[in-house]
Design goal:
The complex is a heterodimer of chains A (about 300) and B (about 290). Helix content of chain A is about 75%, strand content about 0%. With about 300 residues, chain A is an all-alpha fold. The longest helix of chain A is centred in the N-terminal third of the chain and has 50 residues. The radius of gyration of chain A is 27 Å and the shape is globular. Chain B contains 14 helices and no strands. Classes of the chains: A mainly alpha (about 300), B mainly alpha (about 290). The interface between A and B is large, with 100 and 92 residues.
């Protein structure tokens, strides 16, 4: 037995060194899957989008001539591009502003210790958020029919003329906004509720001593305290809202309807790339949308900084 | 002494009475909540009504409000147009694979960020968080080109592999590990001779099982609901996910046959609703915890 020891030791120590080296690199190995996949399927395609946008790029052609800024020039003079930009922002405003107000109202109602069956309310409010977007769009398309469905019936009962919801820009965007509001209000309300519950009770007590009523303590204590969370929700709604795709595609058509009333920027990217096979032109629109999203994210970041430094 | 005590007593009494009157929930509050919940559930009820009736039912005035007996006939009609049950299996494969991979990779990375000391840790964490603001959906055209370059178009791995890990998940699991694993536990495992992976596998993972499962559910639902990317990358009906299959049911007709499209929607939504009934409470808690920390 003792003769084994001198032989075994160098092996063990070498294994020890290897183990030590392994331990040093282990953390990098553990975080590497994220970075590798993000580089391959996230960052590389984004950068490649810029490259493709500078070419006349049809997927089946072998040669993709370099055209410089031609795709961008075409984009800026393309009325459908501007329509898509306007529609995207219109849907975004129609959905975000009322949605956030509704979420705040629901959150402040939920923020009460004596509320009964709390879990029931919270779970029921989250159901829209787990519903697939495809389902949401189909259900709401059938609710807002011109000649059938509950909304058409209510209009008839009220002796109002029928509305062809998917035919005009405003009604199309309104219905799409309603879908977005339906899916996200409960989720945002839960986020706001969590933030409201983290507000120290002493703040409310001192506001009460100062004679603040419910409304005053809501506007002067609750809202300022949860401002970072509201800003966070605005950012996520913006980044998500500007990429809206499924609702306009299924409510109107892959081209955004006969007059482009439901055409959004992502829908235009999709149509140009996978229906018209203009990869180059589609990429230039994607780059424009990327710039818009990053600009808005940047503005939000600066705003958040300003708010934090003013506190 | 007695004066201050009575003062304290009266103070407590007044505060007590205020507490019993103030937080009492008004009828108005319940009215708001009942309306909100009706608004949340009514559209889904409408889906069940239309999807269980025949195709003429939707045009009835006043609208039908009760489920019918046509559900199984509608399923037969769906299967004649598109292999829908197969698409549900595909969706399940994608959702399950994404959930398992995300739970593993995100918790492993989250563990590294939360408990291991290494050079560049905080900078790399900032990099992870920063990627969350990047709308990577906009790289969809080159992503398609990459996938066709490696021969992955029209395959399920084109959906699974890019979704195998996420910045959001890494951040979420880091918060979970920080909140539920004391440093002493990791230290004790090391003293017992565990390597870092052994520590992760037999000490960390068993302790974060619940939170990891909630996150996995979240990831699975996201993968199940995904639409744009599957629509772009899948061409043959036998590879469709349920969301793409529903879209196919809608096209090719001048007027949408809502009864069968809704039946398909029911089939594709029901698994999520059942999962949500089982684990929704934990999901709500997970979302709210993430909101406060994030």
């Amino acid at each position: 037995m003792s003769t084994d020891t001198p032989i075994a030791t160098p092996f063990a120590s070498r294994r020890g060194v290897r183990a030590k080296l392994g331990e040093r690199f282990a953390p990098y190995v553990y975080i590497s899957p994220f970075f590798i996949l993000f580089l391959l399927f996230g960052l590389l395609p984004l950068l490649y989008t810029i490259w493709v946008s500078l070419h006349d790029w049809a997927p089946l052609d072998d040669v993709h001539p370099f055209v410089g800024g031609d795709n961008y020039a075409r984009m800026l003079s393309d009325p459908r591009f501007w329509k898509a930009v306007a529609n995207t922002f219109s849907i975004f405003l129609l959905s975000t502003v009322p949605g956030l107000v509704l979420s705040l109202i629901i959150a402040s109602v939920l923020n009460n210790r004596s509320l009964r069956v709390k879990t029931f309310w919270r779970m029921a409010l989250l159901v829209p958020n787990i519903t697939p977007l495809v389902t949401v769009t189909i259900v709401f398309s059938s609710i807002f029919g011109r000649d059938y469905g509950p909304v058409a019936w209510v209009l008839q009962v009220l002796h109002l003329p029928p509305i062809d919801w998917g035919a005009t820009p405003f009604t199309t965007q309104l219905v799409i906004a309603i879908m977005v509001i339906w899916r996200w209000t409960g989720y945002n309300a839960l986020i706001f509720l969590a933030a409201m519950q983290a507000v120290p009770a002493s703040l409310y007590e001192s506001a009460e001593i100062d004679g603040a009523g419910r409304w005053a303590s809501f506007t002067q204590v609750t809202l300022p305290s949860i401002r970072p969370t509201i800003l966070f929700s605005v950012v996520t709604s913006t980044v998500g809202g500007l990429q809206i795709f499924t609702e306009p595609l299924l409510f109107t058509s892959p081209t955004g309807g006969s007059n482009g009333q439901g055409l959004t920027m992502t829908l235009l990217v999709y149509g140009q790339a996978f229906n018209s096979f203009h990869f180059g032109y589609a990429s230039s629109i994607a780059v424009a949308l990327l710039v818009i999203v990053l600009l808005i994210a940047g503005v939000n970041f600066v705003l958040a900084r300003l708010i934090r430094s003013s506190e | 002494m007695s004066v201050s005590r009575t003062a304290a007593l009266s103070d407590r009494r007044s505060r007590g009475s205020r507490r019993s009157s103030r937080p009492q929930v008004s009828m108005f509050s319940y009215a708001v909540l009942v309306l909100a919940v009706l608004g949340c559930l009514a559209p889904l009820y409408w889906m069940f009504v239309v999807g269980s009736n025949d195709s003429s039912a939707i045009s009835r005035f006043p609208p039908i409000v009760t489920p019918g007996g046509n559900f199984f006939d509608n399923i037969v009609a769906i299967e004649q147009k598109v292999p829908f049950f197969h698409s549900l299996v595909n969706s399940a494969i994608v959702a399950l694979s994404v959930a398992v991979l995300q739970m593993f990779f995100c918790s492993l990375a989250g563990f590294a960020f939360a408990k291991l000391a290494f050079r560049g840790r905080s900078a790399l964490l900032v990099a992870v968080i920063a990627t969350m603001a990047i709308p990577s959906q906009l790289g969809i055209v080159p992503l398609y080109m990459i996938m066709s370059g490696i021969g992955w178009t029209d395959t399920l791995q084109a959906l699974i592999v890019p979704g195998a890990v996420s910045a959001f998940g890494v951040f979420w699991m880091r918060q979970v590990v920080m909140g539920s694993i004391p440093d002493e536990l990791v230290e004790a495992a090391r003293i017992d001779g565990c390597g870092t992976f052994r520590t992760y596998w037999s000490v960390v993972l068993p302790n974060i099982r619940g939170s990891a499962a909630v996150f996995g559910l979240f990831a699975a639902m996201g993968a199940w609901n995904d639409f744009l990317w599957p629509l772009v990358i899948l061409n043959s009906p036998e590879n469709f996910t349920s969301q793409v299959a529903i879209q196919q049911l809608r096209t090719g007709y001048n007027t949408v046959d809502y009864s069968i499209v809704m039946t398909a929607s029911i089939l594709a939504t029901l698994p999520l609703l059942i999962l949500f009934l089982a684990a929704g409470k934990q999901l709500v808690a997970g979302i709210m915890e993430g909101a406060v920390k994030g």
